[in-house]
Amino acid sequence: MKGYVVCVYKNIASDEKLKEYAIKARVAVEKYKGKFLIRGGRSTSNEGEKSPRTVVIEFASFDQANSFYKSKEYQDAHSILKGHAERQHQTIEGA
User: Fold this and answer.
1) Domain at 2-94: CATH architecture
2) How far apart are CA 79 and CA 42, in angstroms?
3) How is residue 61 annotated by DSSP?
4) Cα separation of 47 and 68, whole Å?
5) Among residues 33, 40, 31, 46, which one has the least CA distance to residue 3?
6) pTM of this prediction?
7) DSSP result, 31-76
8) pLDDT (tens digit, 9 = 90+) per residue, 31-58?
9) What is the 8-class DSSP label of residue 13?
10) Contacts of residue 39, Cβ cutoff 8 Å, sequence gap at least 6
11) CA distance 14 to 36
12) Which are the contacts of 90, defined by CB distance < 8 A and separation ≥ 6?
């Protein structure tokens, strides 16, 4: 089964840091052969609070998605956001 990384941002304090993070994160996504399905864009909040940004990345498997998250490349990118964004980040097995 495929694996999905789902990031729902609660707030973004620095657009500059988000851009820096995105450049490095993309390198890790490409290395682990991930495919962006959602990366920001227009949205409507039907229930609950509106998120300023949502990202969904598809991987060939749940294990590959977890390997991506734990990789040095992604963790280096992830460290850029500390203190600059609050989000919920999950790896989910799906169809």
Assistant:
1) 2-Layer Sandwich (3.30)
2) 27
3) S
4) 30
5) 33
6) 0.93
7) HTT-EEEEES-----SSSPPPS-EEEEEESSHHHHHHHHHSHHHHH
8) 999 999 999 889 999 999 999 999 999 9
9) S
10) 55
11) 22
12) 5, 6, 7
User: For 61-70, what is the mean pLDDT?
Assistant: 97
Q: Are 57 and 37 in contact (CB under 8 A)?
A: yes
pLDDT at 84 over 90: yes
Token pair for 43: 């949205």
Write out the H or E segment, with its range, that includes residue 11. strand 2-12
Helix (H, G, I), strand (E, B) or coil at 27: helix
The three-class DSSP label of residue 77 is: helix
| Distance (Å, whole) CA 29 – CA 93 | 17
What does the block give as tokens for 63?
A: 């294990």
Task: Name the nearest CA neighbour of 92 among 19, 4, 8, 9.
Answer: 4
